[in-house]
Amino acid sequence: MLPWRVSRWAMQLSLQVACPPGALVAGKSGAGARSPSMLVPWPPSLRGSSSLPTGAPEVALTAERYPVQRLPFSEVTEEDLAAFEHMLPGRVITDPEVLAAVNVDWLRSVRGCSRVLLRPRTTEEVSRILRHCHQRNLAVSPQGGNTGMVGGSVPVFDEIILSTALMNRILSFHDVSGTLVCQAGCVLEQLGRHVEERGFIMPLDLGAKGSCHIGGNVATNAGGLRFLRYGSLRGTVLGLEVVLADGSVLSGLSSLRKDNTGYDLKQLFIGSEGTLGVVTAVSIACVPRPQAVNVAFLGLMPGHAGCPGFQEVLQTFRFCKAQLGEILSAFEFLDAECMQLVGRHLGLSCPVRGSPFYVLVETAGSSVAHDSEKLTAFLEQALSSGLLTDGTVATEQRRVQALWALRERITEALSRDGYVYKYDLSLPLEQLYHLVPDLRARLGPRARHVVGYGHLGDGNLHLNVTAEAYSAELCAALEPYVYEWTAARRGSVSAEHGLGFRKKDVIGYSKPPAALELMRQLKGLLDPKGILNPYKTLPTRA
Amino acid sequence: MLPWRVSRWAMQLSLQVACPPGALVAGKSGAGARSPSMLVPWPPSLRGSSSLPTGAPEVALTAERYPVQRLPFSEVTEEDLAAFEHMLPGRVITDPEVLAAVNVDWLRSVRGCSRVLLRPRTTEEVSRILRHCHQRNLAVSPQGGNTGMVGGSVPVFDEIILSTALMNRILSFHDVSGTLVCQAGCVLEQLGRHVEERGFIMPLDLGAKGSCHIGGNVATNAGGLRFLRYGSLRGTVLGLEVVLADGSVLSGLSSLRKDNTGYDLKQLFIGSEGTLGVVTAVSIACVPRPQAVNVAFLGLMPGHAGCPGFQEVLQTFRFCKAQLGEILSAFEFLDAECMQLVGRHLGLSCPVRGSPFYVLVETAGSSVAHDSEKLTAFLEQALSSGLLTDGTVATEQRRVQALWALRERITEALSRDGYVYKYDLSLPLEQLYHLVPDLRARLGPRARHVVGYGHLGDGNLHLNVTAEAYSAELCAALEPYVYEWTAARRGSVSAEHGLGFRKKDVIGYSKPPAALELMRQLKGLLDPKGILNPYKTLPTRA
């Protein structure tokens, strides 16, 4: 593909992806369309072994790899199983093969040894389960789509796995206000299809949408690809139904945009990773489906400053905000090494080459003509300012999806590259990428790849380091270095992934002791026996 | 003014308000410009007696009008005053004249009898004050701009008034991200000016902006006029610094858009009305200043359905959302009786007449030309559908402000009409207005006026009933009727005003007992002695 000329832009704004159909996405998963993404094997562990690298080693038991001690919870007895079977006939799973899958996170980084999986269908069943567990002092690990990044959704030891998979009913949708009320186990992508047919879209979107559950999204305060435009779940979630640790039900499935009657209790559960209560149903404000969607995939010119090309990314973002204004719906970036891995492991080829950075700019608006004009103005400005090497624009849905796949499937490509050390950082925009070259120099050949990508518009870097296998030595070179680097810049050591099991001990890099103490008090208030998702979110006491 | 014709619209989209300059706004307060609104006497009680109706009666002491008993807090002694004077030299106010003003809410509906006002400048001073009060079991009533609607910001008995008025420093502003960090006592309008000069606007706006403090906005989770576009403070507030009841400081002035490290503690304090902690500083995400703002003020055709004209309001809203999409920034409505009161008490004249309802539609976008085209398309559709009787459009700032004054100053007009029974309800859109005619029939001549207006786009009705003076009999005709009506429709009995003192006992109409119990537990956890804003938010135990 030849570099663009400004003159081409005016005529070719609705240019499709220039490579032939199918060329962008190869491999057995087919078209790799963004939606439906059922064809995209995410997370691999849920899609069968064909998605895993051949010869993938058995995942080490969490209890063996990490210095963690089982707390004095009861063990599940035959009487407990009989009680559960009475509550959930035929939905108490003890089959070792099924349990093997749900004991491991999809990143294959942690593994528990639970001996029972419960699959309730109703809030009342969840309530009965928790009442029993509370009385018996049995620990519970709630599990949605098991697509988390921090080992929060699988047991650490023998906690009972409480799956929301069968709680997948849509309860109501109001097609004027766009309010959706549904059970926690609804898969995000299926919800998206439901509301799209009615003129709306979900206010959040993420790579794992084909597997993740809305309850899990809420419990982890998922950010994702639409955060820039539609904001946080803390604003878009209108109400929750939650079962507390003792089995009592907190009903708050409000459909109101505004409600200032007392403390906003739902906020306690958003982002608390199942440690304060189990989300059983969600009321969420959907947003009108845009009439026009454009995606521009752009290669940035290598610059000469500290991080060659990154200043150009930032300047492109500034132009983008100024020219696209209210129609800007995503500004994602990835570095050249990400792009190589996506090509190598997934067979996706990139329509733009030879740049140190690539950005994906999406517009979503209500007028095809206006949005095209705005996008043209932005691209002309970026081109005439010498920021871009090359790029392509798509408006047709399939092409839009193909361009998005290059960004969305990076996680999957990384997981095929070996063991992945994952960091999800919030940092000041100006320094968002600086840690990546710093780490490349620091780690040298010990790392296969050090890559950076993420939601630039939200100040959110996904920093990933791959290696042949887990190594304590490499880990020690990374941690606490990455956390200290982040803390020194007042960043967050978990922007959107949460803390789960694997990050719980680093909370202190982003939160002061007084905050941590108050969090412990909240946990003690809501779950005095500590049975809900133990060993997660809050650090082990020294 | 003649009714529009579609053909006029295409040519006259940037039509100014048709009446001569100044005609819209009369009276001694001058131009009534929307911004700066320092000229608008809001709240009247802070502007001196000239804003009050002449002969306004003395406000009854809360302790006498309401069935409330003083809790066994200590009384302020000379030793306490000396200790405070040592902490805040010259800023311990015991002057009865000053205290008279800060003991009464601006609506003149409640009055406390505090004997001391403290005016700290720093978080450290607030911390020292609360540490002392906690040790001494002295109750504290935090006060920002004292512009609340529910008696939440003045003492009920002799609580110490802790004012944020001198905590008015802007701490930082980042002109790429738009993150503002400031002390709690900054006045919203002044913050608006600061960020507007730097290319941003505040994500919230409300009629009281000339007096209200950002800390109070956060503490009450203020909604206001930009909620439809920029959402809730729960999404736009990035961080808080809060002093807890025992004087300890919870530092969380993050500037990060995303941070999932543990429970989001700031959410506890947003909307908790000073009962869980005192907000001392705020980090908030401002939004880019729109390049183009249009306001259309429209008269609706009287229809024939249950509420004549209201179906037309709803249909206009539907067209608005479809045609204006992402540039729609406000959709406010008011009924004919509101308009009469604004004319009678404030001397404002309306450019549109003779309709049962009026709507104010605002667009805010990044392109003058595109926004005009979208607005034209909407107006043509609404006109050709026979929804509108008349209307006017403004783009020039002064005219925009004049049209906004018609909506923003309704509260003020009502306060001059006599005693006001105020209800702030969230209701399903379809039934948003039905309670107003229902109440007119129910109350008959006992009420001077029953009016409805508000943020239609957010499903938020401000229902106001005026009468010559407070009367227990009229109150009994209104309550619990209004609350039961609202609860039967699963609405909220306080959409955005909070509960404060006057609404605390009606929380049960919108929240179940389990939620209320958890709120009490949270209060007990964070403020075990109950010294922070007692008698507010949570109901008195039976």
TrEMBL record, chains A, B:
Top EC category: oxidoreductase
FAD-binding PCMH-type domain: residues covered: 109-289
Superkingdom to which the source organism belongs: Eukaryota
Cofactors: FAD
Reaction equation(s) it catalyzes: (R)-malate + A = oxaloacetate + AH2
Matching InterPro entries: FAD-bd_oxidored_4_C, FAD-bd_PCMH, FAD-bd_PCMH-like_sf, FAD-bd_PCMH_sub1, FAD-bd_PCMH_sub2, FAD-linked_Oxase-like_C, FAD-oxidored/transferase_4, Oxid_FAD_bind_N
EC number: 1.1.99.39
Entry keyword Methyltransferase: no
Signal peptide: none
UniProtKB keywords: FAD, Flavoprotein, Oxidoreductase
Family under the similarity heading: Belongs to the FAD-binding oxidoreductase/transferase type 4 family.
Protein name: D-2-hydroxyglutarate dehydrogenase, mitochondrial
Protein's organism: Erinaceus europaeus (Western European hedgehog)
Organism lineage string: Eukaryota, Metazoa, Chordata, Craniata, Vertebrata
